[in-house]
Amino acid sequence: MSDCLFCKIVAGEIPSKKIYEDDKCYAFYDIDPKAPVHFLVIPKEHIESAAKVTDDNEKTVGHIFKVIAKLAEDLELTDGYRVVTNVGKDGGQTVPHMHFHVLGKRSLAWPPG
Ligand code: AMP
Ligand code: ZN
Question: Would you say 30 and 99 are in contact if contact means Cβ atoms under 8 Å apart?
């Protein structure tokens, strides 16, 4: 979607602190962290919110949860973490491209600087 902030991040048109990407999803640090470790995982495909999961894209959601578990392990969130997805205006969603916040307490010295 051309006018979507997170589609532009996926396309590299807006810079981000990338943690991981594959053919289906992209993970990057939140610009305004609410926890010592706070990153977002998004589908590369534009899906507006978790309310727009369909038979065609449901596998992407499962894949994202697998990636979240792997990244949490890589970032040493060994004592646990929160996964949050806001839906719509009343759910506090400010960017209309589905994203999963991952919030944890362990802070690694990455990215450098
Ligand atoms: P939500 O309020 O659930 O829609 O979450 C949107 C999140 O995107 C917020 O936590 C913002 O801090 C974050 N955000 C907005 N713009 C950027 C950006 N350019 N790079 C990284 N995170 C961003
Ligand atoms: Zn988008």
Answer: no
| DSSP annotation of 40 | E
Instruction: Kindly give the distance from the C-alpha atom of residue 78 to the centroid of ligand 2, in angstroms, as a whole number.
Output: 31
How far does residue 100's CA lie from ligand 1's centre (Å)?
10
pLDDT at 1: 74
Residue found by looking up tokens 């916040």 in the block: 101
Contacts of 92 (CB under 8 A, 6+ apart): 86
pLDDT of residue 24: 98
In this predicted structure, the answer to whether residue 108 has a pLDDT above a threshold of 70 is no
Query: And the tokens for 92?
Result: 């506090």
